[in-house]
Amino acid sequence: MTTKHANIRKRPAAEQNRPPVRPSAKAVATRAALIELAAEMFATNGYLQTSIRDIAREASLTTGAIYGHFRNKAELLAEAISSRTETDLESIPETSDHQPQHVDVLKRAAFRFAERRQLRSLILQGAAAAITDNETRDRLRDEQLSHLQDWVDRYEANQEQLGIDPSVDIRDAVLFTWAAEVGLGVLEALGIEPRSKKSWADMAARFGQSLTLPPLD
């Protein structure tokens, strides 16, 4: 008995189990360069105001070449934010004994807040677009939750060693800290900034120290 699709050749089992082809070094470099370029253009010109065509023109590529690396502009923005987060925030070294001392990490991260201006701008641009664009909202939500959950897992795994009070909700503590970072981006857009790196770092250290205290009530 034959069917409409009987003449379609079935792939051998060896082909079906073959691992995906790894991208070439050139493809990896092109993708990284596009992420960096998009980050600059989104932060400078605005996410909504920058099109894939604009990025392609600046990169001397076709729009098809860019879509070969990214499904859409929302994915490109999410990758730009993720890359900036890893470079500007998660690259802060831990202490020499490899124990993540949260007060010290928060203080040093806050002291370097000016270096993350572009990251905050990208998140702000994406948040504005997410209000009316479901694709952007879903893609950025996944990107943000990925980093937030990673930070929560790290602190929960070391909560006792760090001396953080057992009553502290680690997830909310991480959200509170990140809200201060993202909120600073809103204030910067209005021309409002911390008085100094030292005072901003001091506020972060005070918050970190408060996590070791018992609840007030």
How does the SSE layout of this entry go?
Blueprint: H1 13-16, H2 25-45, H3 52-59, H4 63-67, H5 73-88, H6 102-111, H7 117-130, H8 134-157, H9 159-162, H10 170-189, H11 197-210
Task: Characterise this structure.
Residues 1-11 and 96-100 have low confidence and may be disordered. This protein folds into two domains: 23-71, Homeodomain-like (Arc Repressor Mutant, subunit A), CATH 1.10.10; 78-210. By secondary structure, it is mainly alpha-helical. Helix 2 packs across helix 5 (73-88), helix 2 crosses helix 7 (117-130) and helix 5 (73-88) runs antiparallel to helix 7 (117-130). The longest helix has 24 residues, at 134-157. Helices cover 65% and strands 0% of the residues. The protein starts with 12 loop residues before the first helix and ends in a 7-residue tail after the last helix.
Summed up:
The protein has 217 residues and is an all-alpha fold.
With helices defined by DSSP (H or I, 4 residues minimum), what is the helix count? 11
How many discrete structural domains?
2
Helix-strand makeup class:
mainly alpha
- The strand count comes to 0
Average pLDDT for all residues: 86
Q: Any low-confidence stretches, pLDDT <50, length ≥5?
A: 1-11, 96-100
**Any idea what the shape is?**
globular
- The percent range for strand residues is under 5%
**N-to-C CA distance:** 77 Å
Query: Nearest-angstrom radius of gyration?
Result: 22 Å
What kind of sheet is the major sheet? Answer: none
Spell out the helices and strands N to C. Answer: HHHHHHHHHHH
Roughly how much helix do the residues carry, as a percent range? 55-70%
